[in-house]
Each structure stands twice: as C-alpha cells, then as structure tokens.
Amino acid sequence: MDDLNAMLEPGQIVRHPAQDDWGKGQVQSNINGKLTVMFEQVGKIVIDSRRVALLPVFDALD
Hints:
By secondary structure, this protein is an all-beta fold.
C-alpha cells in the first residue's frame, strides 16, 4: 500500500479517523512512511502511513 499521508508536513493539524477522543494533532515529522504526531489528549504517537490515513484539519473550528 502507498503512503497515505505523503502530503502531510510538520506543523499541519490532523485528526485520527478512528480515534476522535485523541483530539487534534500537530504533525511533528513525516519520514519514510512514519508520521510523528503530537495529539492533544494522548501526546506523541508514531503512525504507520501505510495503514492509517490521517484527516487534515483545515478549519480552526473543526
């Protein structure tokens, strides 16, 4: 499977599609299919981009 988050860059805000209770997360790094995200409620999580497609947050009210 391809990298589902290839377009995400450090600083972007995202949500995990299956973990709404984690809150918003800020992308810290995106290296070789491993995405490090700092989520509001659970802290730093490393996500395998081949398995999970994070949802970009474009609206500050989202």
